[in-house]
Amino acid sequence: MKDNFTYLDNAATTKPSDEVVALNNVIQSEYFANPNSIHELGVLANKQIYLAKEKILKHFKLTKHKVLFTASSTEANNIAIKGYCLNYKNRGKHIITSEIEHPSVLECFKQLEKEFGFSITILKVDNNGQISLSDLEKSLQNSTILVSIMAINNEIGSINPISKIAQIVHKFPKANLHVDTTQAIGKLSLDYSDIDMFVVSSHKIHGLKGSGALIYKNSLSFLPLISGGGQEDGFRSGTQSVANAVTLAKAIDLIKKEDVNHIIELKNRLVSKLSSVDEIVFNSNEKCSPYIVNFSLKTKKASVVVEALSLKGIYVSSVSACNSKKEASSYVVKAISGDDHRAHNTIRVSFSKDNSLEEIDVFTKELINILETIR
Amino acid sequence: MKYDHIMVRYGELSTKGKNKKDFINTLARSIRNALRDFSNLEYIVRLDHIYIKLNDNSAEEIIEILQAVSGIHALSLVTKIDDNIENIKNTALEIIKLEEGKTFKVHTRRANKKYPIISDQVNREVAATILRSTSLKVDVHNPDIMLSIEIREDGCYLFTKTFEGAGGYPLGIGGKILHMLSGGIDSPVAAYLLMKRGLRIECIHFASPPYTNIGVIEKLKDLLGKLNVYQDKIRINVIPFTKIQEKIYEVSDESYAITLMRRAMFRIASKVAIMRHFPAISTGESVGQVASQTLDSMNVINEVTNLPVLRPLITTDKLDIISLAKKIGTYDISIRPFEDCCTIFAPKNPKTRPSLEKSKEFEAKFNLDEMIDEAIKNIEVIYVSKE
Q: What is the ipTM of this complex?
């Protein structure tokens, strides 16, 4: 591994902060007991989990919600969609989502349709990556029990108007709103009290991998996808990780609203340096989250460019990989542009508060150089 | 009664004289190397067999390891006793009782000509003992249990269980060869076949970053890791091929690109082989699988070198190659999606019958020799060994 590198793949994962790593070490050694044990050590461990949950709810200013710890936001999405729908299927079997959701949402919807007889509506997005509010309103029915719309898209950073969506959904008393907030936590101001279920992924906010949460209105219940000893109110069995719980709360605590100003600077620098490059076509626009910039290459192969950057110690991501058997393509970029070629050659750059303007300059300089020299 | 020896039988018994001695010595070296983690083994190396005295080591583990050592025809679990005929009869009975089957045959070899009882007599006496004490019957044509007795000067060896060896020749007896390793399904299988035939391999691989992903190199290491059980240290010479590849595409017709690239690769492999004193090179090619593997293509590509080019898979069907790849554990690694040649370099209509003249014309357009020397100067060497 190189000593000096430029990491611009923060939407994939972020580096755990020093405080989180230190806290993890402390908890692993000092609160190692099983939080379900009835002896003193167990009680103290369990208390840490309780305190973590309180801290999280306080940060989001929530009084009517509960926290359920999971291993990832993928798992949290699964509980919010499959666990919820299977629990409430007697109320109705119609569910709505959008076409550019993360696979952890879309695959749940597909499975509910195929295996459990749910009827699904998949809303189209416009070329800004947003759903149409009138389409949403028109597709809601009496039998709709769930609407799942993401706050920020993980590939292009497009933002949905969550408050307005919540308003529309709640006109239907049986319908609840799930928002995949994985890329939004700490990066977008939202009124979380409007949202019935939303999710957190610790490793996207400088926390640990293997740690996530579902935050949900306390009137809701779920069919357990993982059965067992009955932890997390019976909705998700398995011995809880006290360290994950505490470090997740810490990561959320460390979020500073002002960080976003620095990110806006980074995005502006990047866009201004690349806007005159003929080869580049932007998939993200000004309406998108400043944390994510996605663009396509007109004639060069994205996977080769990503590899060339990687060899120089600059790390970004692409949907397509150099694989002659299966040319992967971005369904998100296809949805917003209708362009297959564009969808096959995307590059995503994503920032964290630790990135600097100098790093942006290094990246753009190297990128332009590579675009000029490769075939 | 305890099985206290393993008897190793050689393959390729047609070798004689000095060659046979070389064979045995090389094989003995391979065996000692394969079993170096075991303490307390004793080796008795003879012209017809090698005996390994177990001294409390686990026979099962050792047999499993030896089944991967090439040059071994068969392995038997043996018990050694003194040559007292009563002892022989009793031990034979003990051994037979451990076996499953309804019929048996006794086969005695009297290597010690001074032994007072002739083989035939030993057979009869042992058989009689067994017939008296068990319900087994004799079948001289197709017995369920074959009891072998070897009477030598140092004692008597009895065995029934025989395990198949890998066959082939002991590693190193055939010399060394430079093998072109791509990371696909075929080239690791070809490497295995060469090793089995007694050739020590060194690999050469052509990398074209950034068109090829760094994952390919890890893939090669993992593939050779599977082959370490046959050759415990393998060197890869990684050649930086990007500039040559780009140049070829710049100066030639797309349909000739593959032919020219393969010619360049063969030139480089030959040069490296000569530099490192290898008498031959090898590839995983098989006739007709892809355009560059038609006879006409091979003719034009091979023209660049005088070295013998060994192609162990030349007539093997793809299905059989895959089957062998699965057997040696390389298949799953080979199908990992890291291509050794990027799709942007895949011409739509590669020539299946390229012209030698045309190829040379294209090559004359640029400083190929210089670029080849430059590439060889920048070889990256990687060693993959059992650890």
A: 0.82
